Amino acid sequence: MSIQLPKRIWFTGVPGSRWSGIAQTLEQLPGMNISDRTAEREYTHHQYSGHKGAYFGKGMEFPADPNHVDQAWTSQDGCRLIKSHEWIDHIDDIKQMYPNDWIMLVYRPDQSSFAWWHEAGGFQIGYPNYSAYKNSSNMLSEITRTNQLILEHACINNCTWSYFTSKWINDNFKATINVDNVIPDILVTLIKS
User: Fold this and answer.
1) Which of 76, 91, 162, 164 has a CA between 20 and 30 Å from the CA of residue 13?
2) Are 74 and 35 in contact (CB under 8 A)?
């Protein structure tokens, strides 16, 4: 039996952390709301599904504003996975404004993330729009800054990092979802109220 999901899970990781694949796996959980998915909000690269659903951030379809996040979904039922690279800059506000919601952090080292983001298309990625990062140098700087904040907030909140596995999903969500490809330099954690 699955556990009671919150209204929202604020989901964050750096570009290239492969967090979008993790998001799509979690969106298979019973009770998840995927009504933010449209053909315009999809990007595929290589054999990967890439991006699906709404992304929030600078230069993207929706700003990373914790006050205005629900408009991307056509239904308000179920749990929404709200994706932004920038939620780490708003963690304290999110915790105060939405004390019953969860926050999920994805960590992958800077260089691995930077390389995968380029492999996935870099500035040619069709959705979401990464033009606000301007150039590769700025992107790497932002990945480094964001990853540092992710680690700091995990430490402040006494989080335990784990690999993203079927067992981790079962331990945290009481659901069985097969994770085919465990990547050894990607770690995940949850901040629950």
Assistant:
1) 76
2) yes
pLDDT tens, residue by residue, 49-94: 678 999 999 999 999 999 999 999 999 999 999 999 999 999 999 9
Query: What is the number of structural domains in the chain?
Result: 1
Residue 180: pLDDT band with limits 50, 70, 90: confident
| Within-domain flag for 146 | yes
The answer for residues whose C-beta is within 8 angstroms of residue 19's C-beta and 6 or more apart is 11, 12, 13, 83, 106
Q: How many CB atoms lie under 10 A from the CB of residue 154?
A: 17
**Separation CA 27–CA 44 (nearest Å):** 17
Report strand pairing: 8-12 vs 80-84.
parallel
Q: Is residue 3 part of a domain?
A: no
| Residue 2 domain-assigned (yes or no) | no
